[in-house]
Amino acid sequence: MDINAILKKIDKDFILSKAEKLGNTDFAKVLKESETIQKLAAKEGPLQKFVNDVTLLIALVKDYYTGTYRDIPIKSVAAIAFTLLYILNPLDLIPDFLPGIGQLDDAAVVALCLKIIRDDLDKYAQHTTQQPDTKS
C-alpha cells in the first residue's frame, strides 16, 4: 500500500466533490452519530490532535441543521458533514483497522477541510462566543 499516493488523492476537489452529493439525511446522520465521531477523534493517533476541531465542526452542523446558525455557505457545511462522515467510515481510503496508519487519511481530510472552511469556522466560533449564556 503506497500511503503517499493515497494521501495525494485527498485534495480540495476530493472533499468538495463528495460534499456536493450530501443532503439533509447526511446532516442528520452526523448528528445521530456525533458521539461516535467524537470518540473516534479522541482515540490515540493522528486524528487525536483534531478532537477540539471535530467537536466544533459537529456543533456547527447541529446549529445549521436546526436553523440556529445559517451564516455559512451550504458548500462549507457539506464539506464539514462529509469530513465527519469520513471519520465515521472505517473502510475509507486507508482502512481504520490498520494499526498506526488507519487514521492518517482521516486526519488529512480533517486538516484539509479545516483549511478550506477556516474563515467560516472562525466566524462561527466568534458567533458562539457572543451568544448569551441561557443556562443560568
From TrEMBL:
Domain DUF1232: 78-112
Membrane topology: Multi-pass membrane protein
Keyword Glycoprotein assigned: no
Keywords: Membrane, Transmembrane, Transmembrane helix
Cellular component terms per the entry's GO annotation: endomembrane system
Subcellular location: Endomembrane system
Name this polypeptide is given: DUF1232 domain-containing protein
Native organism: Desulfoplanes formicivorans
Keyword NAD: no
Pfam families: DUF1232
Primary location: membrane
